[in-house]
Design brief:
By secondary structure, the chain is of the alpha+beta class. It contains 10 helices and 9 strands. The chain has helices at about 25-30, 95-115, 145-150, 190-205, 250-255, 280, 285-295, 330-335, 380-385, 420, and strands at about 85-90, 135-140, 180-185, 205-215, 270-275, 345, 350-355, 360-370, 395-405. The strands form 2 sheets. Strands 5, 6, 7, 8 and 9 form a 5-stranded antiparallel beta sheet that branches. A 4-stranded antiparallel beta sheet has the order 2-3-1-4. Helix 2 (about 95-115) runs antiparallel to helix 4 (about 190-205). The radius of gyration is 21 Å and the shape is globular. Its EC number is 1.11.1.-.
Length: about 425
């Protein structure tokens, strides 16, 4: 977790009446799609528009739609989604570049249809038959090992070099990395699972699941007004996330048009970390002690130095005894971009809960996902600094990790990764 964590609110949902019983997903879009959420090549800023008003009927959540084709892949600049699935695949023995290209072609076709609210093209299961697209996004990426398996080592980006080891890591290799990575998000749990199942079935004999994780966020319209999300520690989490309106947003988050390698133009790099929160230990702390660990008030996310959530943190302010109001090892102090050479990353995480261990300990925490043009200038310097003295490190454990090259969006008639696999 970092100070730059994300709660980028989705655009307002449509206000159309609910679809009559039995209306198909395609027909539903005919009545609601025109006013639903549309995000595509020019829609980065739209992903940060106001969240649905509480007056908006919950049934209209289903009409929200993101676009598959565009300059960037979906699932990066859109707001946090209520349900998410992360899944990594390894290519099957004997599968290479030809099989990978066919797989990405199938996956892209499936993602395009499902994001439009249409049935999957190959053996649809009817799981989402009664729903609209529910702002579904499907995002594809390539891991470091993918390039050797497909004979494309010369096309592997330098930015995809393995992440360094951190002293706080307790990584499970079986749940880390992978040849291919897919991120699925939606504002309806059945729509999200429907996409996960379709992607898994499309893999066929070309690839096998390496690991899979499930996450969630607050549902649209659940709060009285749009607000930054809270994590499972109860802390407001997302105050300083970069926004498309920032002058340097694209430079920090996306590979430029003339960047290297050429097939990564308009793409980004995703760092994925499964961070377990040691909630039993955390919840033993009094709220005031929790606030010192983070450096912000728990009630409203304002810095301990005063003001509101968006007030600039005063790192030099002291109390009457001369002690720093924001402790030197506070998480929010350490992760500030101005304390890390301007390092920035777009955070778009999911919370997770995978049951309760035999001793009563919850297996819960954060599926940390951050996006940047170069992880060596984004995630790595911040994590190194956290590794040296973050007060929060006592209450979290990094259990899985991955780094993936996520190419730019596919143009109409293309599939994701085509410029790499057919270039």
């Amino acid at each position: 977790m970092t100070e730059q964590s994300a709660r980028t609110a989705p655009s307002a949902d449509a206000t159309s009446d609910p679809a009559p019983q039995g209306l198909s997903r395609r027909a539903l879009l005919g009545t609601a799609g025109a006013t639903g959420l549309v995000l595509g090549a020019a829609g980065a800023a739209a992903g940060y528009a106001a969240a649905p008003s509480p007056a908006t009927p919950l049934t209209s959540v289903g009409s929200g739609r993101a676009m598959f084709h565009g300059k960037h892949q979906p699932g990066i600049t859109e707001g946090l989604q209520a349900r998410g699935h992360l899944v990594a695949f390894d290519l099957a023995a004997g599968a290479g570049r030809k099989e990978a290209a066919a797989l990405l072609r199938r996956w892209s076709q499936t993602a395009e249809r499902l994001m439009a609210g249409e049935p999957a093209p190959h053996g649809d299961t009817d799981i989402a038959r009664d729903a609209g697209p529910s702002s579904l996004t499907v995002t594809f990426g390539f891991g470091h090992s993918f390039f050797a398996r497909t004979g494309l080592e010369k096309q592997r980006p330098a930015a995809l070099d393995p992440l360094p080891e951190f002293s706080s890591d307790r990584l499970d290799k079986a749940r880390s990395n992978g040849d291919l990575w897919v991120q699925i998000g939606a504002d309806d749990a059945l729509v999200a699972f429907h996409a996960l199942r379709a992607i898994q079935k499309d893999a066929g004999s070309a690839a096998r699941v390496r690991w899979q994780m499930n996450g969630f966020n607050r549902s649209p319209g659940a709060t009285a007004h749009p607000m930054t999300a809270r994590n499972l520690m109860g802390q407001i989490d997302g105050t300083r996330n970069p926004r498309p309106a920032d002058a340097d947003f694209d430079r920090r988050i996306f590979v430029p048009e003339d960047g290297e390698p050429a097939w990564m133009a308009n793409g980004s790099y995703a760092v994925v970390r499964r961070i377990r929160m040691l909630l039993d230990d955390w919840e033993k702390l009094k709220p005031a002690e929790q606030e010192k660990v983070i450096g912000r008030r728990k009630s409203d996310g304002a810095p301990l130095s005063g003001g509101t959530e968006t007030t600039e943190m005063d790192l030099e302010k002291t109390d009457p005894q001369g002690n720093l109001v924001v402790p030197i090892n506070a998480h929010a102090r350490i992760t500030r971009p101005d304390q890390n050479g301007g390092a920035a990353m777009l955070r778009r995480p999911f919370s997770y809960h995978d049951g309760i261990d035999a001793d009563g300990t919850p297996d819960a925490g954060l599926l940390f996902i951050c996006w940047q043009a170069d992880p060596l200038r984004g995630f790595v310097p911040v994590q190194r600094k956290l590794d040296r003295g973050d007060a929060l490190s006592e209450y979290i454990r990094h259990e899985a990790s991955g780094l993936f090259a996520v190419p730019g969006g596919a143009a109409k008639g293309e599939y994701v990764g085509q410029r790499l696999l057919e270039g």
